[in-house]
Hints:
By secondary structure, this protein is mostly helical.
Amino acid sequence: MLFIFKFLTSLIFLIDDLTFLMYCIYEYNMSTQEAGIIFCISALCLFTYGITIAGYIIDKTNVKVALMIGLCLYATGKFILIFAATRT
C-alpha cells in the first residue's frame, strides 16, 4: 500500500514538473534554459523544505501518515486550481 502511495505522489510530481516547464515556456515566452533554471531553483527549495520541515513531520508521525497528509493537501490544492478562472 505504501508503495502505491509513493508511486502516485512521484507520478503527480513528474506531471506537475512537466506542466511547470511548459507553462513557463509558452505563457512567459522563456527559453528552455531559463525555464530549466527556474525549475532547478524551485526544486532546490523543495529539497531544502523536504530535508528540514517535512523530515521533522515524518519523524514525529510515521511515513504512511505523512504521505497521506501530503497527498491529500496536494490533491486539494490541485482541485482548487481547477476552478481558478484567472491567474489573479
